[in-house]
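Bug: C-alpha coordinate stream looks shifted between consecutive jobs. Job 1:
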Amino acid sequence: MLRQGATAATFDDLTGTVLAGHHQPLQVWVLCLYFMGLNLSNRQIAQELSLNSGDVQRMTEQLRARIVARQPEPRLVGEVECDEVYVVAGHKGGHPDAVKKRAARGGAVVVRMLGNVQQATIRPLIERFIAPGTRVHTDEYHIYHRLTEWGFDHHTVCHS
Protein backbone atom coordinates (compact mmCIF):
# COMPACT_ATOMS: atom_id res chain seq x y z
CA MET A 1 0.00 0.00 0.00
CA LEU A 2 1.29 3.43 -0.89
CA ARG A 3 0.41 6.53 1.03
CA GLN A 4 0.40 10.01 -0.35
CA GLY A 5 3.98 11.25 -0.59
CA ALA A 6 5.45 7.72 -0.50
CA THR A 7 7.61 6.55 -3.36
CA ALA A 8 6.98 3.39 -5.34
CA ALA A 9 9.42 0.51 -4.85
CA THR A 10 10.21 -2.50 -7.00
CA PHE A 11 9.97 -5.93 -5.42
CA ASP A 12 10.84 -9.35 -6.78
CA ASP A 13 11.40 -12.91 -5.49
CA LEU A 14 14.74 -11.94 -3.97
CA THR A 15 13.72 -8.73 -2.18
CA GLY A 16 14.59 -8.92 1.51
CA THR A 17 16.69 -12.09 1.12
CA VAL A 18 20.43 -12.74 1.19
CA LEU A 19 20.22 -12.92 -2.62
CA ALA A 20 18.90 -9.39 -3.16
CA GLY A 21 20.86 -6.72 -4.95
CA HIS A 22 22.03 -8.47 -8.11
CA HIS A 23 20.43 -8.87 -11.49
CA GLN A 24 20.65 -12.67 -11.57
CA PRO A 25 17.42 -14.70 -11.35
CA LEU A 26 16.68 -17.02 -8.42
CA GLN A 27 17.57 -20.13 -10.46
CA VAL A 28 21.11 -18.80 -11.04
CA TRP A 29 21.55 -18.05 -7.33
CA VAL A 30 20.42 -21.56 -6.38
CA LEU A 31 22.77 -23.14 -8.91
CA CYS A 32 25.62 -20.94 -7.70
CA LEU A 33 25.01 -22.07 -4.12
CA TYR A 34 24.82 -25.69 -5.29
CA PHE A 35 28.17 -25.40 -7.10
CA MET A 36 29.71 -23.76 -4.03
CA GLY A 37 28.55 -26.80 -2.05
CA LEU A 38 30.41 -28.99 -4.55
CA ASN A 39 33.51 -26.91 -3.76
CA LEU A 40 33.89 -25.61 -7.33
CA SER A 41 36.09 -22.57 -7.82
CA ASN A 42 34.55 -19.25 -8.84
CA ARG A 43 36.08 -19.72 -12.30
CA GLN A 44 34.40 -23.14 -12.64
CA ILE A 45 31.07 -21.75 -11.42
CA ALA A 46 31.30 -18.90 -13.94
CA GLN A 47 31.91 -21.43 -16.74
CA GLU A 48 29.01 -23.66 -15.63
CA LEU A 49 26.59 -20.73 -15.41
CA SER A 50 27.96 -18.84 -18.44
CA LEU A 51 28.57 -15.77 -16.30
CA ASN A 52 31.29 -13.18 -15.96
CA SER A 53 33.82 -14.25 -13.31
CA GLY A 54 33.46 -10.85 -11.59
CA ASP A 55 29.71 -11.41 -11.18
CA VAL A 56 30.31 -14.86 -9.73
CA GLN A 57 32.93 -13.45 -7.36
CA ARG A 58 30.43 -10.89 -6.03
CA MET A 59 27.68 -13.52 -5.76
CA THR A 60 29.80 -16.03 -3.83
CA GLU A 61 31.11 -13.30 -1.51
CA GLN A 62 27.57 -12.14 -0.85
CA LEU A 63 26.34 -15.67 -0.20
CA ARG A 64 29.19 -16.44 2.20
CA ALA A 65 28.94 -13.15 4.08
CA ARG A 66 25.18 -12.97 4.42
CA ILE A 67 24.47 -16.63 5.09
CA VAL A 68 27.20 -16.82 7.71
CA ALA A 69 26.04 -13.53 9.23
CA ARG A 70 22.54 -14.96 9.74
CA GLN A 71 23.74 -18.13 11.45
CA PRO A 72 23.47 -18.09 15.26
CA GLU A 73 26.73 -18.66 17.07
CA PRO A 74 27.02 -22.29 18.17
CA ARG A 75 27.16 -23.19 21.85
CA LEU A 76 29.21 -26.35 22.24
CA VAL A 77 28.15 -28.75 25.02
CA GLY A 78 28.73 -32.36 26.04
CA GLU A 79 32.20 -33.35 24.87
CA VAL A 80 34.28 -30.86 22.91
CA GLU A 81 37.73 -31.03 21.34
CA CYS A 82 39.95 -27.94 21.15
CA ASP A 83 43.01 -27.78 18.99
CA GLU A 84 45.06 -25.18 17.21
CA VAL A 85 46.03 -25.31 13.56
CA TYR A 86 48.85 -23.33 12.05
CA VAL A 87 48.13 -22.13 8.53
CA VAL A 88 51.19 -21.23 6.51
CA ALA A 89 50.55 -18.80 3.68
CA GLY A 90 50.59 -20.60 0.35
CA HIS A 91 50.57 -24.04 1.99
CA LYS A 92 48.37 -26.33 -0.08
CA GLY A 93 45.42 -27.73 1.89
CA GLY A 94 45.81 -25.21 4.70
CA HIS A 95 42.67 -23.20 3.97
CA PRO A 96 40.35 -22.96 7.02
CA ASP A 97 37.47 -24.51 5.03
CA ALA A 98 39.61 -27.64 4.57
CA VAL A 99 40.22 -27.71 8.33
CA LYS A 100 36.48 -27.55 9.02
CA LYS A 101 35.76 -30.48 6.74
CA ARG A 102 38.45 -32.67 8.29
CA ALA A 103 37.53 -31.72 11.85
CA ALA A 104 33.77 -32.28 11.63
CA ARG A 105 32.57 -35.38 13.50
CA GLY A 106 28.85 -34.90 13.40
CA GLY A 107 28.66 -31.83 15.63
CA ALA A 108 29.17 -28.11 15.31
CA VAL A 109 32.61 -26.82 14.44
CA VAL A 110 33.99 -23.38 15.26
CA VAL A 111 37.05 -22.17 13.33
CA ARG A 112 38.60 -18.77 14.00
CA MET A 113 41.77 -17.16 12.68
CA LEU A 114 43.87 -15.71 15.51
CA GLY A 115 46.87 -13.44 15.56
CA ASN A 116 48.57 -15.64 18.16
CA VAL A 117 48.00 -18.74 20.27
CA GLN A 118 48.08 -17.61 23.88
CA GLN A 119 45.78 -18.13 26.87
CA ALA A 120 44.69 -14.49 26.75
CA THR A 121 43.65 -14.95 23.11
CA ILE A 122 41.90 -18.31 23.35
CA ARG A 123 40.10 -17.85 26.70
CA PRO A 124 37.45 -15.40 25.39
CA LEU A 125 36.70 -17.74 22.46
CA ILE A 126 36.47 -20.82 24.66
CA GLU A 127 34.15 -19.03 27.09
CA ARG A 128 32.07 -17.64 24.21
CA PHE A 129 31.50 -20.93 22.38
CA ILE A 130 31.75 -23.68 25.05
CA ALA A 131 29.19 -24.03 27.84
CA PRO A 132 30.61 -24.02 31.40
CA GLY A 133 31.15 -27.51 32.82
CA THR A 134 31.60 -29.06 29.38
CA ARG A 135 34.21 -31.83 29.05
CA VAL A 136 36.98 -30.36 26.90
CA HIS A 137 39.59 -32.63 25.31
CA THR A 138 42.91 -31.07 24.26
CA ASP A 139 46.50 -32.04 23.66
CA GLU A 140 49.08 -31.21 26.32
CA TYR A 141 49.88 -27.75 24.96
CA HIS A 142 50.32 -25.33 27.90
CA ILE A 143 47.73 -22.84 26.62
CA TYR A 144 44.99 -25.27 27.72
CA HIS A 145 46.32 -25.88 31.28
CA ARG A 146 43.92 -23.40 32.91
CA LEU A 147 40.70 -24.84 31.46
CA THR A 148 39.76 -26.34 34.84
CA GLU A 149 40.21 -22.91 36.50
CA TRP A 150 37.99 -21.44 33.80
CA GLY A 151 35.16 -23.85 34.70
CA PHE A 152 35.60 -26.75 32.27
CA ASP A 153 36.12 -30.49 32.77
CA HIS A 154 39.55 -30.70 31.12
CA HIS A 155 40.99 -33.97 29.74
CA THR A 156 44.25 -34.25 27.81
CA VAL A 157 45.55 -36.61 25.16
CA CYS A 158 49.27 -37.32 24.86
CA HIS A 159 50.26 -37.48 21.19
CA SER A 160 53.74 -38.87 21.82
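Job 2, same session, no restart:
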Amino acid sequence: MRLLILDDEVLSVEIMLKKVDWEACGIDEVLVAYHAEGAREILKNSPIDIILCDIEMPGENGIEFMQWARKNGYEMACIFLTCHAKFEYAQEAVRLSSKDYILLPVPYDVITDKVKTVVKELAWQRERERAADIGNKWIREKQEQTKKLYGEARSKAQLAEDVKSYIAKNVSEPKMSVQSIAEYIGLNGDYLGVLFRQETGTTINKYLVETRMEIAAQMLRKGGVSISAVADAVGYENASYFSTSFKKVYGCTPAKYSKE
Protein backbone atom coordinates (compact mmCIF):
# COMPACT_ATOMS: atom_id res chain seq x y z
CA MET A 1 0.00 0.00 0.00
CA ARG A 2 1.08 3.59 -0.59
CA LEU A 3 1.04 6.16 2.24
CA LEU A 4 1.34 9.95 2.07
CA ILE A 5 2.62 12.11 4.95
CA LEU A 6 1.38 15.70 4.80
CA ASP A 7 3.21 17.79 7.42
CA ASP A 8 4.97 21.15 7.19
CA GLU A 9 7.52 20.22 9.91
CA VAL A 10 10.46 18.84 7.89
CA LEU A 11 12.37 17.52 10.93
CA SER A 12 9.28 15.77 12.33
CA VAL A 13 8.71 14.05 9.00
CA GLU A 14 12.34 12.92 8.72
CA ILE A 15 12.26 11.44 12.22
CA MET A 16 8.93 9.72 11.56
CA LEU A 17 10.30 8.19 8.34
CA LYS A 18 13.15 6.64 10.34
CA LYS A 19 11.29 5.65 13.52
CA VAL A 20 8.18 3.99 12.07
CA ASP A 21 8.67 0.48 10.67
CA TRP A 22 6.67 1.05 7.50
CA GLU A 23 7.36 -2.41 6.08
CA ALA A 24 6.01 -4.04 9.24
CA CYS A 25 2.92 -1.84 8.86
CA GLY A 26 2.27 -3.24 5.39
CA ILE A 27 3.28 -0.02 3.61
CA ASP A 28 5.19 -0.47 0.35
CA GLU A 29 5.92 3.20 -0.37
CA VAL A 30 5.87 6.43 1.66
CA LEU A 31 5.50 9.78 -0.11
CA VAL A 32 5.90 13.17 1.57
CA ALA A 33 4.37 16.61 1.04
CA TYR A 34 5.16 19.66 3.17
CA HIS A 35 2.13 21.71 2.12
CA ALA A 36 -1.35 21.13 0.71
CA GLU A 37 -0.44 22.05 -2.86
CA GLY A 38 2.33 19.46 -2.89
CA ALA A 39 -0.09 16.83 -1.58
CA ARG A 40 -2.57 17.74 -4.32
CA GLU A 41 0.07 17.14 -6.98
CA ILE A 42 0.90 13.75 -5.50
CA LEU A 43 -2.77 12.72 -5.41
CA LYS A 44 -3.22 13.70 -9.04
CA ASN A 45 -0.30 11.50 -10.11
CA SER A 46 -0.17 8.63 -7.61
CA PRO A 47 -2.96 6.57 -6.03
CA ILE A 48 -2.75 6.93 -2.24
CA ASP A 49 -4.23 4.42 0.19
CA ILE A 50 -3.55 6.20 3.51
CA ILE A 51 -2.65 9.76 4.46
CA LEU A 52 -1.07 10.89 7.74
CA CYS A 53 -2.32 14.46 7.75
CA ASP A 54 -1.07 17.18 10.09
CA ILE A 55 -3.81 19.65 10.97
CA GLU A 56 -1.87 22.80 11.95
CA MET A 57 -0.10 24.07 8.84
CA PRO A 58 0.37 27.61 7.50
CA GLY A 59 -2.00 28.57 4.73
CA GLU A 60 -4.31 25.64 3.97
CA ASN A 61 -4.46 23.40 7.04
CA GLY A 62 -5.00 19.64 7.14
CA ILE A 63 -8.75 19.84 7.75
CA GLU A 64 -9.20 22.16 4.77
CA PHE A 65 -7.06 19.90 2.60
CA MET A 66 -9.11 16.81 3.49
CA GLN A 67 -12.32 18.73 2.82
CA TRP A 68 -10.97 19.42 -0.68
CA ALA A 69 -9.89 15.79 -1.09
CA ARG A 70 -13.29 14.36 -0.12
CA LYS A 71 -15.10 16.90 -2.31
CA ASN A 72 -12.99 15.77 -5.27
CA GLY A 73 -13.59 12.08 -4.74
CA TYR A 74 -10.34 10.99 -3.06
CA GLU A 75 -11.25 8.16 -0.70
CA MET A 76 -7.89 7.35 0.92
CA ALA A 77 -8.02 6.52 4.62
CA CYS A 78 -7.00 9.48 6.78
CA ILE A 79 -5.23 9.60 10.14
CA PHE A 80 -5.08 13.15 11.49
CA LEU A 81 -2.09 14.36 13.52
CA THR A 82 -2.33 17.36 15.85
CA CYS A 83 -0.63 18.92 18.84
CA HIS A 84 -3.84 20.62 20.02
CA ALA A 85 -6.84 18.81 21.51
CA LYS A 86 -9.57 20.98 20.00
CA PHE A 87 -13.12 19.63 19.97
CA GLU A 88 -13.87 21.23 16.59
CA TYR A 89 -10.89 19.38 15.08
CA ALA A 90 -12.13 16.03 16.36
CA GLN A 91 -15.67 16.81 15.25
CA GLU A 92 -14.57 17.65 11.71
CA ALA A 93 -12.28 14.61 11.61
CA VAL A 94 -15.33 12.41 12.26
CA ARG A 95 -17.34 14.20 9.57
CA LEU A 96 -14.52 13.60 7.09
CA SER A 97 -14.58 9.85 7.90
CA SER A 98 -11.03 9.85 9.24
CA LYS A 99 -9.80 6.54 10.60
CA ASP A 100 -8.07 8.03 13.62
CA TYR A 101 -7.06 11.24 15.40
CA ILE A 102 -3.65 11.22 17.08
CA LEU A 103 -2.76 13.84 19.67
CA LEU A 104 0.99 14.50 19.47
CA PRO A 105 3.51 13.89 20.86
CA VAL A 106 3.14 10.09 21.12
CA PRO A 107 5.66 7.22 20.96
CA TYR A 108 6.29 6.16 17.37
CA ASP A 109 5.07 2.65 18.11
CA VAL A 110 1.62 4.21 18.67
CA ILE A 111 1.70 5.63 15.13
CA THR A 112 2.96 2.25 13.89
CA ASP A 113 0.03 0.44 15.55
CA LYS A 114 -2.49 2.94 14.18
CA VAL A 115 -1.17 2.54 10.63
CA LYS A 116 -1.13 -1.26 10.97
CA THR A 117 -4.77 -1.23 12.05
CA VAL A 118 -5.83 0.91 9.09
CA VAL A 119 -3.85 -1.27 6.65
CA LYS A 120 -5.63 -4.37 7.98
CA GLU A 121 -9.03 -2.65 7.68
CA LEU A 122 -8.33 -1.63 4.08
CA ALA A 123 -7.07 -5.11 3.18
CA TRP A 124 -10.22 -6.67 4.67
CA GLN A 125 -12.44 -4.18 2.86
CA ARG A 126 -10.76 -4.91 -0.48
CA GLU A 127 -11.01 -8.63 0.14
CA ARG A 128 -14.74 -8.28 0.71
CA GLU A 129 -15.07 -6.20 -2.46
CA ARG A 130 -13.20 -8.85 -4.44
CA ALA A 131 -15.45 -11.58 -3.06
CA ALA A 132 -18.53 -9.49 -3.86
CA ASP A 133 -17.31 -8.92 -7.44
CA ILE A 134 -16.99 -12.66 -7.98
CA GLY A 135 -20.46 -13.22 -6.52
CA ASN A 136 -22.02 -10.44 -8.59
CA LYS A 137 -20.56 -11.89 -11.78
CA TRP A 138 -22.13 -15.24 -10.95
CA ILE A 139 -25.46 -13.53 -10.28
CA ARG A 140 -25.41 -11.68 -13.62
CA GLU A 141 -24.69 -14.91 -15.48
CA LYS A 142 -27.61 -16.64 -13.77
CA GLN A 143 -29.94 -13.74 -14.56
CA GLU A 144 -28.98 -13.85 -18.23
CA GLN A 145 -29.63 -17.58 -18.33
CA THR A 146 -33.05 -17.06 -16.76
CA LYS A 147 -33.96 -14.30 -19.20
CA LYS A 148 -33.02 -16.44 -22.20
CA LEU A 149 -34.94 -19.41 -20.83
CA TYR A 150 -38.18 -17.70 -19.80
CA GLY A 151 -38.28 -14.45 -21.74
CA GLU A 152 -40.77 -11.96 -20.34
CA ALA A 153 -43.66 -14.38 -19.73
CA ARG A 154 -45.10 -14.45 -16.19
CA SER A 155 -45.96 -17.94 -14.94
CA LYS A 156 -45.48 -20.24 -12.00
CA ALA A 157 -42.10 -21.09 -13.45
CA GLN A 158 -41.24 -17.40 -13.70
CA LEU A 159 -42.40 -16.89 -10.12
CA ALA A 160 -39.90 -19.51 -9.02
CA GLU A 161 -37.23 -17.71 -11.04
CA ASP A 162 -38.18 -14.43 -9.35
CA VAL A 163 -37.48 -16.10 -6.01
CA LYS A 164 -34.14 -17.39 -7.30
CA SER A 165 -33.24 -13.97 -8.67
CA TYR A 166 -34.07 -12.26 -5.37
CA ILE A 167 -31.94 -14.77 -3.46
CA ALA A 168 -29.03 -14.26 -5.85
CA LYS A 169 -29.19 -10.47 -5.58
CA ASN A 170 -29.40 -10.50 -1.78
CA VAL A 171 -27.20 -13.48 -1.01
CA SER A 172 -24.96 -11.42 1.29
CA GLU A 173 -27.91 -10.47 3.53
CA PRO A 174 -27.63 -12.68 6.64
CA LYS A 175 -31.24 -12.12 7.73
CA MET A 176 -32.85 -13.19 4.45
CA SER A 177 -35.74 -15.58 5.08
CA VAL A 178 -38.74 -17.11 3.35
CA GLN A 179 -40.84 -14.34 4.88
CA SER A 180 -38.63 -11.51 3.57
CA ILE A 181 -38.61 -13.11 0.12
CA ALA A 182 -42.40 -13.54 0.19
CA GLU A 183 -42.87 -9.90 1.17
CA TYR A 184 -40.77 -8.83 -1.81
CA ILE A 185 -42.65 -11.14 -4.20
CA GLY A 186 -46.01 -10.06 -2.78
CA LEU A 187 -47.36 -13.46 -1.72
CA ASN A 188 -48.06 -15.32 1.50
CA GLY A 189 -44.92 -17.13 2.70
CA ASP A 190 -46.52 -20.56 3.03
CA TYR A 191 -48.22 -20.27 -0.37
CA LEU A 192 -45.02 -19.13 -2.06
CA GLY A 193 -43.18 -22.05 -0.45
CA VAL A 194 -45.69 -24.52 -1.87
CA LEU A 195 -45.51 -23.03 -5.38
CA PHE A 196 -41.72 -23.00 -5.30
CA ARG A 197 -41.52 -26.62 -4.21
CA GLN A 198 -44.03 -27.71 -6.85
CA GLU A 199 -41.96 -26.01 -9.55
CA THR A 200 -38.44 -26.87 -8.37
CA GLY A 201 -38.78 -29.95 -6.19
CA THR A 202 -37.01 -28.27 -3.29
CA THR A 203 -37.78 -25.80 -0.52
CA ILE A 204 -36.86 -22.13 -0.58
CA ASN A 205 -34.64 -22.53 2.47
CA LYS A 206 -32.73 -25.43 0.94
CA TYR A 207 -32.31 -23.54 -2.32
CA LEU A 208 -31.08 -20.50 -0.38
CA VAL A 209 -28.37 -22.55 1.34
CA GLU A 210 -27.36 -24.30 -1.89
CA THR A 211 -27.10 -20.97 -3.71
CA ARG A 212 -24.92 -19.51 -0.99
CA MET A 213 -22.69 -22.57 -1.12
CA GLU A 214 -22.47 -22.51 -4.93
CA ILE A 215 -21.39 -18.85 -4.92
CA ALA A 216 -18.95 -19.58 -2.09
CA ALA A 217 -17.47 -22.46 -4.06
CA GLN A 218 -17.07 -20.18 -7.07
CA MET A 219 -15.14 -17.68 -4.93
CA LEU A 220 -12.95 -20.39 -3.42
CA ARG A 221 -12.12 -21.77 -6.88
CA LYS A 222 -11.04 -18.31 -8.01
CA GLY A 223 -8.68 -18.08 -5.05
CA GLY A 224 -7.12 -15.04 -3.41
CA VAL A 225 -10.03 -14.56 -0.97
CA SER A 226 -10.03 -15.63 2.68
CA ILE A 227 -12.67 -18.00 4.03
CA SER A 228 -13.97 -15.33 6.42
CA ALA A 229 -14.45 -12.90 3.50
CA VAL A 230 -16.27 -15.58 1.50
CA ALA A 231 -18.51 -16.34 4.47
CA ASP A 232 -19.36 -12.66 4.86
CA ALA A 233 -20.04 -12.27 1.13
CA VAL A 234 -22.63 -15.07 1.15
CA GLY A 235 -24.46 -13.96 4.28
CA TYR A 236 -22.76 -15.84 7.11
CA GLU A 237 -21.73 -13.71 10.08
CA ASN A 238 -20.05 -16.72 11.70
CA ALA A 239 -17.21 -18.27 9.66
CA SER A 240 -17.34 -21.50 11.70
CA TYR A 241 -21.05 -21.99 10.96
CA PHE A 242 -20.35 -21.25 7.30
CA SER A 243 -17.66 -23.96 7.22
CA THR A 244 -20.09 -26.46 8.76
CA SER A 245 -22.78 -25.62 6.19
CA PHE A 246 -20.27 -25.81 3.33
CA LYS A 247 -19.07 -29.25 4.42
CA LYS A 248 -22.66 -30.55 4.48
CA VAL A 249 -23.07 -29.57 0.83
CA TYR A 250 -19.60 -30.32 -0.61
CA GLY A 251 -18.36 -33.01 1.78
CA CYS A 252 -15.22 -31.10 2.79
CA THR A 253 -14.23 -27.88 4.51
CA PRO A 254 -13.84 -24.63 2.53
CA ALA A 255 -10.10 -24.68 3.24
CA LYS A 256 -9.71 -28.15 1.72
CA TYR A 257 -11.98 -27.30 -1.21
CA SER A 258 -9.92 -24.22 -2.10
CA LYS A 259 -6.75 -26.34 -2.34
CA GLU A 260 -8.27 -29.02 -4.61
